[in-house]
Amino acid sequence: xxxxxxxxxxxxxxxxxxxxxxxxxxxxxxxxxxxxxxxxxxxxxxxxxxxxxxxxxxxxxxxxxxxxxxxxxxxxxxxxxxxxxxxxxxxxxxxxxxxxxxxxxxxxxxxxxxxxxxxxxxxxxxxxxxxxxxxxxxxxxxxxxxxxxxxxxxxxxxxxxxxxxxxxxxxxxxxxxxxxxxxxxxxxxxxxxxxxxxxxxxxxxxxxxxxxxxxxxxxxxxxxxxxxxxxxxxxxxxxxxxxxxxxxxxxxxxxxxxxxxxxxxxxxxxxxxxxxxxxxxxxxxxxxxxxxxxxxxxxxxxxxxxxxxxxxxxxxxxxxxxxxxxxxxxxxxxxxxxxxxxxx
Length: 344
Ligand SMILES: [Zn+2]
What we know:
By secondary structure, the protein is an alpha/beta fold. It folds into 2 domains: about 1-150 and about 295-344, Quinone Oxidoreductase, Chain A, domain 1, CATH 3.90.180; about 155-290, 3-Layer(aba) Sandwich (Rossmann fold). It has helices at about 40-45, 95, 125-130, 145, 150-160, 180-190, 200-210, 220-230, 245-255, 275-280, 295-305, 325-335; strands at about 1-10, 10-15, 30-35, 55, 60-70, 80-85, 85, 105-110, 120-125, 130-135, 170-175, 195-200, 215, 235-240, 255-265, 285-290, 315-320, 340-344. Strands 3, 5, 6, 9, 10, 17 and 18 form a 7-stranded mixed sheet that branches. A 6-stranded parallel sheet has the order 13-12-11-14-15-16, with helices on both faces. The model has no long low-confidence stretch (mean pLDDT about 95). Zinc ion (ZN) binds near residues 92, 95 and 103.
């Protein structure tokens, strides 16, 4: 079968690899119906060094179960499932607490150790705990939105939860990528009154407004902080969703959070220490967040997707075949596409 392999910065290839097979009795084999390229894939796409081992990329998918191991209890061949970006057993203490990304037996797809989903098929470890069976057919009109439940919609929701978004609150979302846009959906869904999107791509901030953003701030750095404060009576926002992962984004988040406010960070941090600890301290800020336990959120978000109350699938503005994946990386990296769907 064919799969996506990252060899180094800017070097993505589609290659023939051995077909996946069941190894553990708790495994399932998934034929990929839809996968996608993630903003977080762009970090190794930009920074990977030739000394790092090649990686089979992709951690988001919808697919059909092709085979199950002898210990798989809940899934059957033919089930259409969402694959969260992390695998988890669903039974350990952390899974019971809804923090599946800290599963004691879990891990992440698309790493050096575990092949990813930008491929025709893949092996799913701990299938019962990991996969979520969907009540829809494989080629339904909802596929794009359902696919976002594997990562970006769940991650935007996690940012909103970590930032304590609630009814009547003021919210700022830093980042106009797919996660930031889903963060806008999540903030609206949780009842936020004012939602400020910080981003400078007009097509993306326009979509953010359709998703419920009330204000757009296209400035950066100090100017962005001033603008958000001006929009919030000088105090800043109750909740900040930090969906970028740079030190500058965190500095902005701390600068625009209202005293007593909370920051939910879901952008993979590419800096060592959280900056501006003194203002964060004097303003009693909560800084929370991390990899989203999207497996825990599918049940909550699914009815809204199925009944059309939210349409996170609109973040996909390009659909490509597996052979075009290298160009898909380029397009996302050059901000030509918001998020690219892959139909293997
Ligand atoms: Zn677990």
